[in-house]
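FAQ: What does the model actually see?

It sees only this:
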Amino acid sequence: MILKPKEIDCKALFNLDINFPVMGFQTPQENTPKRDENFYFDPIITTSILAGFSANLRIMISGLHGTGKSSHIEQVCARLNWGCLRINLDSHIQRSDLLGKDVLTIDENANQVTRFEQGLLPLAMQSPTALIFDEYDAGKPDIMFVIQRLLEENGQFTLLDQNKIITPHQHFRLFATANTNGFGDNTGLYNGSQILNQAQLDRWNILAKLKFMPSDHEINVIIDKNPQIKTKKDKDFIVKIVEFANLTREAFNNNSLSLFCSTRTLISWAKIYTLMNKDMQLSFQLSFLNRCDNEEFPLINELWQRVFNTELQDISS
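And it is asked to produce this:
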């Protein structure tokens, strides 16, 4: 299939006035993400991502879990009809997964032969794909040095196993997401996060930090993800849980709480609320409270009272 790039209207698609051209494709590709029509685009993060597509810049987005880091990149891809591949740098990813490996196969003469099967990196590089490294700050050292080859200015990648130099497709783009900013985790939330090599970190052109969306947008997102929320009472409940979530985030930032309610948690809370006969406390306990330290219950109860004007049942009793 011949891809026909065209300049897209960023004002129409993202409600952004930007001064650089952004190209997209006329039709979706096989690996183009599904479009979420109600997705909230943070202006700075979205502009950074679009700059990555426009000028082939390497973009890293950091932020707490549940803020929508990878979703932002995917939804930009969805509107540009750009292909997208996500690789989670967890402990199971091996160099051979990224680069490729020799595999045994049967040829047309029924003989057993060995051939090299390319890994995810060379396959993605040779196609119009936005490659996202999720949990970038959790990558193992041997994996990170493989990735460092991708970050060189000329973009060429040497596949040492094959003595082959791969020139990236002109529409290949590179992104990463991380929960920390590269200096490790001092919150205890992200076990396994590494202190990133600063020489490698310096190769990323833009490092953007994503915060939680404004409350009115977050309310709309939760309602959109839970179509069972229809009545005024239910919608008022969503307003309340977002208010409560903001208090937990403020307490977390002040080191008073070890956890906070993310947008993802709120979406689950609302879903459980509709399933559990609209029981506020039970849905809260199942979606968030059971994850909390019992010693933090008094503060959580205080925040709950400020929002809901009721007492929480003590889960430690």
